[in-house]
């Protein structure tokens, strides 16, 4: 379920490139690169990066009922992380070379599987390449967030019981105005609106104002659910609101699972 807590009780999972550089210099962190597919790592990754791929390590093979990138089991995640030499209680920083969504999915999956000290490199590889010289030491994390997931059947059984937020682009949410394009009642809130022009997380005050505009601080007891196409951009959406005290559930099946059944209710944007 969704809860709204005082911001002082929560922390953001994002860290800066400068903080990561200081942690690497002290040898106190493991860095994990997250590829969106099984392709090669970038030419100049963060030094010492362990290479992973979103569909291999943070998802199971897709099927229509579960979506393109269904969640793996926590046991499977703990197994491969042990084989890769990741300390389950150590500091881990995940990053990608794109918009941060793949890294956020990795953060969500690893944290959900029981690794409590995972952070996301804010701005990804581009931020690392452009980092400044200021050394900021890695601070202790608050207790790992209690991440939750929800499946298609639960949402379909009682749509009005949930506050649904669509983290896809506004164009994907709207569709062509004729065919169903999003879950009924879902609010369009693209993951990218939580970022600045350089792909970095907006400052706290700006995100707080955005959350207020979206009604996330309203007196509404219904659980907040984030979805997208396959549970990737939605993971970034969830990460972006952690320090605001908003605790959404991830609908990992997302639109790719929901739309697999033509008989299931769906909505089209007004013409």
From TrEMBL:
GO terms for molecular function: transferase activity. The keyword Aminoacyl-tRNA synthetase does not apply. Pfam families: Rhodanese. The keyword Transferase applies. Coiled coil: none annotated. Residues 33-137, 158-267 form the Rhodanese domain. Keywords: Pyruvate, Repeat, Transferase. SMART domains: RHOD. It comes from the Bacteria. This is Thiosulfate/3-mercaptopyruvate sulfurtransferase. The lineage of its organism: Bacteria, Pseudomonadati, Pseudomonadota, Betaproteobacteria, Burkholderiales.
């Amino acid at each position: 379920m969704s809860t709204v807590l005082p911001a002082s009780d929560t922390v953001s999972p994002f860290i800066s490139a400068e903080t990561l550089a200081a942690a690497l210099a002290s040898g106190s962190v493991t860095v994990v690169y997250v590829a969106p597919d099984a392709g090669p790592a970038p030419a100049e990754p963060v030094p010492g990066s362990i290479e992973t791929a979103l569909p291999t390590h943070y998802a199971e093979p897709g099927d229509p009922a579960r979506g393109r990138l269904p969640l793996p089991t926590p046991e499977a995640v703990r197994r491969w992380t042990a084989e890769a030499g990741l300390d389950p209680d150590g500091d881990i920083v995940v990053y990608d070379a794109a918009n941060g969504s793949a890294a956020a999915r990795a953060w969500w999956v690893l944290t959900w599987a029981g690794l409590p000290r995972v952070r996301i490199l804010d701005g990804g590889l581009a931020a690392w390449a452009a980092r400044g010289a200021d050394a900021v030491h890695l601070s202790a994390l608050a207790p790992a967030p209690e991440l939750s997931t929800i499946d298609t059947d639960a949402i379909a059984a009682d749509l009005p019981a949930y506050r649904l937020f669509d983290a896809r682009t506004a164009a994907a949410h709207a569709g062509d105005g004729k065919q169903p394009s999003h879950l009924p009642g879902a609010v369009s809130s693209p993951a990218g609106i939580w970022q600045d022009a350089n792909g970095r997380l907006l400052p706290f005050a700006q995100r707080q104002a955005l959350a207020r505009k979206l009604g996330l601080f309203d007196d509404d007891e219904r659980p907040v659910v984030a979805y997208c196409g396959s549970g990737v951009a939605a993971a970034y959406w969830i990460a972006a609101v952690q320090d605001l005290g908003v605790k959404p559930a991830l609908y990992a099946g997302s639109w790719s699972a929901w739309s697999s059944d033509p008989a299931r209710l769906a909505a089209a944007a007004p013409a």
